[in-house]
Structures are given as C-alpha cells and as structure tokens.
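User: Here's a chain of 122 residues. Predict its fold as tokens.
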Amino acid sequence: QVELVESGGGSVAHGGSLNLSCVASIGTVACMAWFRQAPGREREGVAAISTGAYFTYYADAVKDRFTISYEDAKNTVYLQMSSLKPDDTGVYYCARTKYCAGWSNPAYFDYWGQGTQVTVSS
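Assistant: Prediction complete.
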C-alpha cells in the first residue's frame, strides 16, 4: 500500500504563488499527478509527470503558470504554482498510477493523498 502525503497549501492573493509537495511512502517508476476539486465541481487533472522519463503533462488552464517536477531521491512530486487566479481555488490532491496515458482521468489512479486546500482571493 502506497501512502501519499501532500503539504504546502494555503491562502494567497490573486497573482501570488504557492508550492505544493507530495511524498510517496514507496518510490517506483510511475505516473504522479496533481488533481484539484472546487466545491460543486468534478475533480480535474492539473498536471502529471512520469517518474521514469520525466515527461510532463498539463491542463490547458494551468500551462505556463504551473510546473510539476519530481525528486527521485525523496520520492517527492512538486507543483509550483504562479500567477494564481481565484479559479485555481480548491483542494489539491496528489495521485499515483502506473502509466500517464489518460492522466487527466482520476479513475485511472490507484493511490490518493488526503488533499491540501489552496485558496486564491480576488
């Protein structure tokens, strides 16, 4: 059983930045991703990275603002978020599955963290 623990959420003003981290209890070649869910909305994929080849994938809504990265030695995936908007508000979840094909679909992911709240005020 893999445990994922997120950290780094918080509140920030429009245009600000936040950095999220997610530590996996077991490291392996996999697809690590960040999802988010706002109240009343479905969970949506934000970004993903393949921990073997370090290919990255982004939702159109966050391209050029968010950066996903992975540190193999620490089994940790990061999400650097800049130019934040109120629409970025939500609970951000870290998730892991074997492959990144179809990464934006939460149904493909096997393991999930508890989530961390990100709030962007206007």
